[in-house]
Amino acid sequence: MFRAHMSVTRIWQLIEKRMMSCISVRGKLPGLQRAVGEVRRKSSFRQSPLLSAAPVRALIDEQISIKGRFLSQNYPVTVCAQMHSEEGDLWEAFAHYTTNASRSINLTSDHSVGGSYLGCEPMGLFWALEPALRSRESLRLRKRNVETPYIVNISLLEGHTSPSEGQSTELAAVTVERWYMAPGVRRIEIRQNKIVGTLFLPPGPGPFPAMLDLWGMGGGLSEDRSALFASRGFASLSVAYMGHKDLPGPPDIMSVADLYFKSAFQLLQDHCQVDADRIGVIGLSFGVCLTLRIATRIGVKPSCLICINGPVGSPLLDEDGKTKTIESDQKHWELDDRGRVSFRHVSLPDNLPPENKQKVKNITCPLMYIVGEDDLCAASTENADVIEEALRSAGKSQLFTRLSYPGAGHLIEPPYAPCARVSLWRAKPEKLFTLWGGHPAPHAAAQEDSWKRILEFMETHLRR
Amino acid sequence: MDRKQYCVKLSVQPSRGLMDEKFIVLIQNALPGSQLTIRALHQCEDGHSWEAFGHYTADTTGTINVSEDPSIGGTYSGVEQMGLLWSFRPIPGSKSGLRMRKKNIQTPMEVTISVYQGHQTEGFADLVPLSGVAVERWYMAPGVRRIPVTEGGLTAALFLPSGPGPFPGLLDLWGGGGQLVEYRAALLASHGFASMAIDYLTAKITMETGKMVDNQYFETAYRVLQQHPQVCGSKIAMIGLSFGTSITLKMAVYSEVIKLSAAVCISGSHVQPVDGSVEEILRFFQKNGEKTRFSEKNEVIWRDLLLPIPTDPSLKVNVGRLQCPLLLVVGEDDQNWPSQESALDIKEMMARAGNSHLLTVLSYPNAGHLIEPPYTPHARSSTLKTVEIEEKVMCLWGGQTVEHSRAQEDAWKKMVVFLRENLYGGRNPTSFSHL
């Protein structure tokens, strides 16, 4: 019954008896001779274990359940995740588990005893990803093209090992895809009315509630959050306001002003598939300042506001709503012993001229402020206090909700993305790295919880 | 229309699933107590459109959860989590005798699920839904590779799971309709089995030479699979449906080359001239052609061709000599093959021979012949062109939709467990009465 134990001679006898007649039809059975030896080496004494994941094609904010089965009892294994970023860097994470009497592991309920994370972390293999090469340490993982998925290879290795050791035997593997866009979500490039942005629409007839999506002073156009909002049933327009080739002016200044954001908001209002009375604004970092300005100064009425780790005002943002370059005022920059800059003190309320602070008391809609308590880029807690106090004085405390996460950094983004504690801020005239803050596990918990709360907040204020 | 209805939210999770994966269809923010219709629409590769729908009433929180709440009308009723898929039927005006089968398994089945105001039963094309989502259903998991196989004159396709292997192997055979049918093998590869779908009736070599393949064709397939560097040569199973069962049982018992770790036989029989080639077996069936019956709708019923189950041992595979676990799947309303009678006879033969501990029978009342992977629609009859008859006939497969769909779901689940435990589990051959 066990083919593997037969002698090569016997195998050849059988082949001659049964196979030669059909082989001769085609001339050869390529690889047969070579393969026979391999069969004897590889065939099974060893019971192959089975590694499975569900779902194998998930949205970015969906949990993936990973299981290993048909292992031996009390058997140490390492589960390892690997993927390539768009820039070609290899990112990896790994964790150590030991099977019990059930001869299986289940990452949804079992505890990691070593590796990139510890304890019971069903999505740890994703949020604990790090660049494989030490030299590429301060990288930030971002997906520019949200129309294609991340492809992550998850493997099961023998023993408690680390991928960099390279010696371990791979027992099994499974491939998963992680998508920003659900099927049917439409991505539309917007270059009209001088707006530079990308609109994401959910599938279906609409009309949909919508979000205006703003990021920070790093510039460019980030689409990942908007793509996910559309996958969750909200139209979402992400706009660029500096550092984009299609925008006027030098890249390190915001050369657009209030009218720009008004046009963006109106684009959503005028869109036939958007419900004009149900539009919210979300901003991260400097985007918070813009969010507050949009809500109070430019003649539009959002239905809700979400502010993540950003200032109530900025010395870089003048009365007309235009910025100076971030380099122009470095007096509050703090450099650590490795020459990395923290911008935190720039946005301390005491360092902000009063005339630069947005008129929070004029806000008329619910506002949720999300704080990463280890934010090294913005003085988030202090700014949240200012906003809360301003609303309280105006008799509007009921509009304010704060979520505050210990150990979380500046970049509180959609869940299961790795925490970038530091990354490259600029390359010229010389490289400058900036500190975002955050530690992997608490930052991951903050991203997961805040995302859920953000979607609930949007459902409550934009759909009911 | 109430403004609030515009805010009805429909979600399906996961939006990208494997064909045998369940999903959760949820409606939120509807007007409490409102009547809504949830409808699924799919256009298959040959251009025909299929629909399924259920009638629901939103609860006091304005929510409908298809996994928990009953449909009170439509193409399915009651609490049916996957009813929107298994109750698919061709849209009104379609021609008769259609059967939904995917040929290109590298792309997903795309389904649009929408919610409509009120309890609608027709004219959906003229209605504007309140909300709609797109859902993908895949036969192949990411990383599964499809490799065409032509070695040794085979017409086959091998599906390899991701990872280093070695993987247990599977030979996958369909029935009298011929062709290279890949979807079950692709799905099984997504569950960790190196699966080879084989065309043995309309293989290239048969089309070119006019000659049917012989027994060695299957042994070649086994060899090719066994010797693949990523296949675990001592853990190979075979699965056959309909005529594929005849081949599977023959190979399992009589082949000196093919040594199976497990066999799955769906909707088939052990009745055949035991020394017969494929051609001879087909001729044996044809000889009994006059036992063909017709339903009142003139559908062909072929189940009597092998009845009564013979007592002559030269006309039945000697299942008493089987040495590997065997899972038999039987639809009790099978109108195409006498699978239930055959299963009973197989059981008796194995009991007499003393190897019935190898046998597990899954028998489903009101299930028909075509017991396929779950959540695909049931065809009680469909047009068929077999290798023996030139023109198409309307063939009666049997089965009642609800029970047939439950049978597909249950049988598939148990089949995958059976294959896993025998091919991955490394246990001694044993029956699976716990299934």
UniProtKB/TrEMBL annotation, chain A:
Q: What is this protein called?
A: Bile acid-CoA:amino acid N-acyltransferase
In the UniProt entry, which residues are flagged as the active site? Answer: 285, 375, 410
Q: Which Pfam families match?
A: BAAT_C (PF08840), Bile_Hydr_Trans (PF04775)
Which Gene3D superfamilies does the entry link to?
Acyl-CoA thioester hydrolase/BAAT N-terminal domain, alpha/beta hydrolase
Q: Which organism is it from?
A: Maylandia zebra
Biological process terms from the Gene Ontology for this record are: acyl-CoA metabolic process; fatty acid metabolic process
InterPro entries, alphabetized: AB_hydrolase_fold (IPR029058), Acyl-CoA_thioEstase_long-chain (IPR016662), BAAT_C (IPR014940), Thio_Ohase/aa_AcTrfase (IPR006862), Thio_Ohase/BAAT_N (IPR042490)
Give the superkingdom in one word. Answer: Eukaryota
Q: Which family does it belong to?
A: Belongs to the C/M/P thioester hydrolase family.
Q: Which residues form the Acyl-CoA thioester hydrolase/bile acid-CoA amino acid N-acetyltransferase domain?
A: 61-192
Molecular function, one GO term: fatty acyl-CoA hydrolase activity
BAAT/Acyl-CoA thioester hydrolase C-terminal domain ranges (all copies): 260-463
Automatic annotation (TrEMBL), chain B:
Q: What is this protein called?
A: Acyl-CoA thioesterase 19
Which Pfam family would be a valid example here? BAAT_C
Q: Which family does it belong to?
A: Belongs to the C/M/P thioester hydrolase family.
Q: Name one GO biological process term.
A: acyl-CoA metabolic process
> What PANTHER family does the entry give?
ACYL-COA THIOESTERASE 17-RELATED (PTHR10824:SF36), ACYL-COENZYME A THIOESTERASE-RELATED (PTHR10824)
Ranges for domain BAAT/Acyl-CoA thioester hydrolase C-terminal come to: 214-424
Please give the InterPro entries that the UniProt record associates with this protein.
AB_hydrolase_fold, Acyl-CoA_thioEstase_long-chain, BAAT_C, Thio_Ohase/aa_AcTrfase, Thio_Ohase/BAAT_N
Q: Give the GO molecular function terms.
A: fatty acyl-CoA hydrolase activity
**Record-annotated active site:** 242, 334, 369
* Domain named Acyl-CoA thioester hydrolase/bile acid-CoA amino acid N-acetyltransferase: residues: 20-151
